[in-house]
Each structure stands twice: as C-alpha cells, then as structure tokens.
C-alpha cells in the first residue's frame, strides 16, 4: 500500500472513531446498515412498547424507530413454551429488522406466540405513525430470492425427525459411538412430544415400589403393587381393542422400567407415579415438579444433544430415502438454502404420525376433515409416504384417536392428569355422563352424544400450584369461582342445570368418601372436589394420535409387504403402527418413543457393525 492510500485509510479510521465517540457504535452500525436503503414510510423517532397475550403469558415487544426505519426490536416472553413459542420470541425480531415490516412469517407450530408478537409490533409502529401497508408492500417487492446450493454429507446414521423418538435414538446411537445427523423440518426440536402433557407409562419400576412402601392408603398400595408388566400388557391390549401387535406391546412393557432408568441417567427422572386413564393401575410416571412430561423431556433431550455434540439440522425437510439394491443408504433433504444428499449406513424414521394432515386423515375418516387437532404442523405423514415409496407396508392406518379433553379455540390439550387427580366431566345439563377415566375413544364418543357435543372438565384447587394447572390459567382457558354454585353461574348454567351441577359435585364427593358406589363404575382418581376456588374448562374431542403407520418388528426394522425387513431402514414412534391397536392408552406414547427410540438405535448400530 502506498503512502497516499495509507493516509486515506488512517483518515477513515479516525473519522469512524470520532463518530463512534460522538454518536455511539450502535448508531453508526444502524446508519451503515440502512445506507442506500429506500424508506417505505416516515415515523416519529422514539422507542415504543406493546404487550399482547401469548401462549404461556404476556409477550412484550419494544421497538426503536428512527424517522424512516425500524432500528431495533426486543421481545420478552419468558412464559412461552421452550422449543415452540420461545423460538418465535427469539427469531421474529430479527426477521422484522431484516424485512423492515412487522408482518413477517410466524414460526410454524407457534401460532399463538407468533400472532401476539406480530400484533404487538404492529401496535408499536402504529404508535410511531408508520404506514404499515407501505412497509408490507416494500418488503414484498424487495424480498430476496434464495438460490439453493447442493451439499453432500456423510454419517453413520441419519435420523429423520427430532421428536422424542428421534432424539432418544440419536442420543442412544451417539452413546454407542456412532456418528449421527438428526434432521427436522421444523425450526425447533420436539415434535408432538412437546404436546405430551401427562407422563410415561411403565411397569415394575423402583418408583412404583417406593411409592407403594410410602403410601398409607391401602387401595393405592394394592394398585401400585399390582401394576406389573403382565397387567401392563393386558391393559394395553384391552385398551387397544386387542388389535395391537402382541409382540410389540410385550416388548414395550418389558423394557419400560429400563427406559425410565435410562431417562434418569440423562437427567430426566420421573419419580411421581399416578393412575393411568383407562385402567385402575399406577403406570404413569411424571416429573416431580408437576411439569407436563413433554416439555420437560424435550428440554433435557436438547441439553443432552448439545452435551454429546450431536448435529441437529432444523428447517431441513427429508424428501426421499436413497435406496441402492433395495437397501436404505441415506436421504435427500431440503433446507431454505441447501439441497442435501446425506449418505448413511442406516436410516431411522421418527417423523411422527399424520394427525395434522387433514387430506390424509379424511381419506380414512371423512368426518375428520374439519376437526381440531392437538398435533404440531409437522405431523403430516412424511415418513410413511417416503417409506411406502421403498415398498414398506403399513398397518392400522384407519385407527385415529380422538382425545376427549381438548380446548377447541386453539387445540390445546387438557391433560388426563386432571381426571387422575379427581376432576370430573359434566355436560351442559350439569350432569356426569361417563366413567371420566374410561379409554379415550369411549369418553370421546360419549361427549359427542351430549347436547351440543361438548362438556366441562371440573376440578378444585388441590393441585393449583403445579405448572400444568398454571398453564391453563395463563392461557385463559379456565373459569373459576369460590363456590360450586358460583361456578355453575360462571359457566352459564341456569335453573335445573345449575341445580344438577351442584348435586353432581355433592354426589361425586360422596363416592370419593366411600359413602356410595359410582354410578358410572369409576374406581380410580377418587379425590373429592372440596377445596375452593373451583374451576371448569370447556372441552370437546380433538384429533390426538394416529395409531396406524409403518409396519415394524420388535427390532424396529421396517417391513415390506411380504413381511421382510427393508435393509438399513428402521422406524420408531408415531410413524409406526401396531403398538396401540385401536386406541392408545394415555402415557403409552412416551413409553413408545423412549423404548422403541432406544431399540431403533441399538438395531441400527448392530446393522452397521464395527
């Protein structure tokens, strides 16, 4: 560099340094960032704040504006669900800055959180006097076209789907010394596991034995000691109307206790044991702090993936299984910027079911075309379709489960745990109408026969401090009152319906006190409703689980239509069929993903060899 150029560089550095001293580095950065950029609007410079109701609580957006541009966006929403709403909180501010509009694409699967953030950002800009329509038009006209590039990756095992089964398999395979890549089309991990609100079923565990020794309730002690592997198998088969694959059920039950122990080994203990809906037994293992099991497990899985250095590729959608000589040897996948070829020695499908694919659902049951679903948008049956292209067989595809307690406005699942803790279901006439803890299909069908096809789930305040119960309050699902009479009025019951409601709760309390037998045959979760305030949530059935899927054996090998394993192809979780038969018992989804996620990893590792 000659002396003249050196002098110019030195002068430029001095000018920038002086400007930084006068205006601050952030202002200089903003000026450089917006240099040459056309403004779509004019605004009153300042800092504006707006708060909207998100999924878990309030979300606050603070926006700094110059006379022409959005200069900074800060979003605070500490109560949003980790891996779902929290992703929207983390990502949408950056999108708004880049696109210079508040109306950016939300995070798929975090609709409520995204909507709240966008509404708050619009409010901030309205306060600033911006022409938001002009900002939207400018952003649309100047949207950058992304040209994808091709990239090839090599690994031992590629896992498609970062839900509970996929993450279990990834961790287990990495612990066995194999290199793993896990991909997911969503911008976060968790899949439908994030939606799991109860616990994990298991039999013959140390937790059951310890609770049996500690309890002074003879009925609880007997039920705990009777929660054996043999009874777990029998209850799961009966709950599934005996069309389950008996060997798959037997394997899940026999390995369930070890699966609970494995979860504890990665820092996810489930020490609290409770009754499971559809049985009288205590299979359900829950987090100690009352958290929903799905959010709890996903958070710990994420930490373990990071600790083990497992590569997770988000917003990366598998499109095809690569086959050579009938063997699965990798996948094709797309991200927003890449077209991937991922070569692997084994492929594990953990893509979930098809509970959010209404075309696929209605092809098996036309009545479901307009139903609400509890599933994430990722549950579209991709893994089933890709495996079928390789000749894979399916089983029980027409078996689609409705969950009886779904809040219809947003598809939020109201956990079976509430009924296990003593909640009851009451129709608009103020009456109970079913054994509230019968199998999900039985309760759902009973609800659909009630006036206007809905019910209320009613509970008291014994468990109000648990996180799960607090979530329903934060999401404004609940109606509460200090008396049963007041609750009847609060939910709109009048006259005979209100009187029936009061009598129904009194009758239930007499059942729990042992003064009479229950008219509907309920013999578990017998907990009185006597601690104010009292709460109700309006619920109705919603699509919850697709029991059908790829046909596998107990080694999770995907089978072709002749019953032979497809070499190199394994599957675990809701993408498979046969485990749950015609109806899934609550708590068995988590047992399924943890047990068969581990088996899929072990089978893939054995298939690869040394």
Q: Quick summary of this structure?
A:
Helix content is 38%, strand content 21%.
Q: Can you describe what's shown?
A:
This protein has 610 residues and is of the alpha+beta class. It is built from 19 helices and 23 strands. Strands 4, 5, 9, 10, 11, 12, 21 and 22 form an eight-stranded mixed β-sheet that branches. Strands 14, 15, 16, 17, 18 and 19 form a six-stranded antiparallel β-sheet that branches. α6 (164-175) runs parallel beside α11 (293-308) and α6 (164-175) packs parallel to α19. The longest helix is centred in the N-terminal third of the chain and has 21 residues, at 3-23. The chain is globular and about 75 Å long. The termini are far apart.
Break the fold down into its secondary structure elements and pairings.
Elements (H helix, E strand, L loop, with lengths): L2 H21 L1 H10 L11 E8 L4 E8 L4 E7 L8 H15 L11 H17 L4 H10 L7 E12 L3 H12 L4 E4 L16 E2 L4 H9 L3 H8 L3 H11 L6 H20 L6 E3 L9 E3 L6 H16 L2 E3 L3 E8 L2 E8 L3 E12 L8 H7 L17 H7 L5 E2 L4 E8 L4 E2 L3 H4 L3 E3 L13 H9 L6 E5 L7 H8 L3 E4 L2 H7 L4 H18 L21 E13 L2 E3 L5 E3 L5 E7 L4 E2 L10 H21 L2
Parallel strand pairs: 4-5, 4-12, 5-9, 12-22, 20-23
Antiparallel strand pairs: 1-2, 2-3, 6-8, 7-8, 10-11, 11-12, 13-20, 14-15, 14-19, 16-17, 17-19, 18-19, 21-22
Helix pairs in contact: 1-2, 3-4, 6-11, 6-19, 7-8, 9-10, 10-19, 17-18
């Amino acid at each position: 560099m000659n002396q003249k150029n050196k002098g110019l560089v030195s002068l430029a550095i001095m000018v920038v340094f002086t400007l930084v001293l006068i205006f601050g580095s952030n202002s200089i950065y903003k000026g450089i960032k917006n240099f040459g950029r056309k403004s779509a609007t004019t605004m009153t410079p300042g800092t504006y704040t707006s708060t909207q109701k998100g999924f878990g609580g309030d979300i606050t957006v603070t926006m700094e504006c110059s006379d022409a541009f959005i200069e900074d966006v800060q979003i605070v929403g500490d109560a949003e669900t980790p891996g779902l709403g929290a992703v929207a909180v983390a990502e949408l501010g950056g999108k708004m800055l880049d696109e210079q509009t508040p109306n950016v694409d939300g995070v798929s699967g975090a609709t409520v959180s995204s909507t709240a953030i966008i509404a708050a950002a619009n409010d901030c800009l309205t306060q600033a006097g911006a022409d938001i329509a002009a900002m939207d038009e400018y952003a649309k006209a100047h949207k950058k076209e992304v040209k994808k590039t091709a990239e090839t990756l090599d690994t031992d095992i590629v896992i498609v789907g970062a839900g509970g089964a996929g993450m279990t398999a990834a961790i287990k395979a990495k612990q066995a010394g194999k290199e793993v890549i896990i991909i997911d089309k969503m911008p976060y991990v968790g899949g439908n596991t994030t939606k799991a609100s109860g616990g994990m079923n298991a039999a013959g565990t140390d937790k059951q034995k310890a609770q049996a020794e500690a309890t002074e309730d003879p009925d609880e002690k007997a039920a705990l000691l009777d929660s054996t592997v043999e009874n777990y198998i029998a209850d799961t088969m009966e709950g599934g109307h005996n069309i389950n694959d008996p060997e798959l059920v037997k394997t899940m039950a026999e390995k369930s206790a070890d699966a609970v122990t494995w979860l504890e080994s990665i820092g996810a203990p489930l020490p609290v044991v409770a009754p499971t809906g559809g049985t009288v037994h205590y299979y359900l293992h829950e987090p100690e702090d009352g958290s929903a099991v799905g959010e709890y497990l996903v958070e710990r899985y994420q930490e373990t993936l990071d600790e083990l250095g497992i590569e997770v590729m988000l917003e990366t959608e598998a499109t095809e299984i690569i086959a050579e000589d009938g063997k699965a040897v990798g996948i094709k996948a797309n991200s927003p910027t890449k077209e991937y070829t991922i070569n692997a020695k084994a492929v594990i499908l953990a893509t979930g079911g098809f509970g959010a694919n209404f075309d696929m659902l209605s092809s098996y049951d036309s009545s479901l075309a307009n139903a609400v679903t509890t599933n994430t948008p990722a549950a579209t049956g991709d893994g089933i379709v890709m495996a079928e292209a390789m000749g894979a067989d399916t089983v029980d595809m027409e078996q689609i489960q409705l969950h009886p307690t779904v809040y219809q406005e947003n598809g939020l699942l109201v956990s079976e745990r509430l009924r296990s803790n003593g909640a009851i279901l009451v129709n608009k006439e103020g009456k109970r109408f079913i054994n509230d803890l019968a199998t999900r299909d039985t309760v759902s069908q009973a609800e659909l026969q009630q006036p206007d096809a809905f019910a209320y789930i009613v509970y008291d305040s014994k468990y109000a401090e648990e996180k799960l119960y607090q979530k329903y309050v934060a999401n404004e699902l609940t109606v509460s009152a200090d008396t049963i009479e007041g609750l009847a009025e609060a939910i709109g019951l009048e006259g005979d319906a209100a009187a029936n409601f009061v009598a129904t709760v009194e009758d239930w309390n007499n059942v729990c006190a042992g003064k009479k037998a229950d008219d509907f045959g309920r013999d578990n979760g017998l907990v009185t409703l006597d601690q104010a305030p009292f709460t109700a949530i309006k619920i109705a059935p919603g699509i919850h689980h697709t029991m059908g899927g790829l046909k596998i054996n107990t080694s999770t090998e995907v089978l072709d239509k002749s019953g032979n394993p497809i070499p190199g192809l394994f599957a675990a979780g809701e993408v498979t069929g046969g485990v749950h038969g015609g109806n899934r018992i609550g708590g068995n989804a988590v047992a399924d993903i943890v047990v068969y996620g581990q088996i899929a990893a072990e089978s893939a590792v054995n298939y690869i060899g040394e």
